[in-house]
Amino acid sequence: xxxxxxxxxxxxxxxxxxxxxxxxxxxxxxxxxxxxxxxxxxxxxxxxxxxxxxxxxxxxxxxxxxxxxxxxxxxxxxxxxxxxxxxxxxxxxxxxxxxxxxxxxxxxxxxxxxxxxxxxxxxxxxxxxxxxxxxxxxxxxxxxxxxxxxxxxxxxxxxxxxxxxxxxxxxxxxxxxxxxxxxxxxxxxxxxxxxxxxxxxxxx
Length: 204
Description:
Blueprint: H1 2-18, H2 23-42, H3 46-66, H4 71-90, H5 94-114, H6 119-140, H7 147-173, H8 184-202
Helix pairs in contact: 1-2, 2-3, 2-4, 3-4, 4-5, 4-6, 5-6, 6-7, 7-8
């Protein structure tokens, strides 16, 4: 898969070089880097994936500064930070993972404010909040974590899960929730219940 995306990268770089004012081609190049990172992550090359995601994100963010109203560029940033966060998570770097996920949702929330009908942004946002919830819940579980910090993490996890659930249910009501995510609302409902149980126990 990575080889395919590298071929696309070579072609799109040539198009961008021939037409320096072609922002679409620049966006394609940025997305190729992100796609290569995704493919490398699937193949187990997490460090390589990290480098590719960071290359793509640097390009997307530069494009976003030039044209902050371009929805495709903003979507590329949101998706790129989500995948970067997932790579950091696999590497065990939860601090950078959380930062990446929070950057992703910041872009996603702004996109929904500007265009409430952007269902792709809503889906990415829902899944990224799920990522945040999972990390916060994971950080809340170790007994060595002070009780007050555990409670804060459970609250953060619950808040993120609830936002994710609300977004997914909205997609479901509109009939646009992808089939592969059909079971996620039930999964998240159980995660919210687990947060509530942990918070109740911490207050005893």
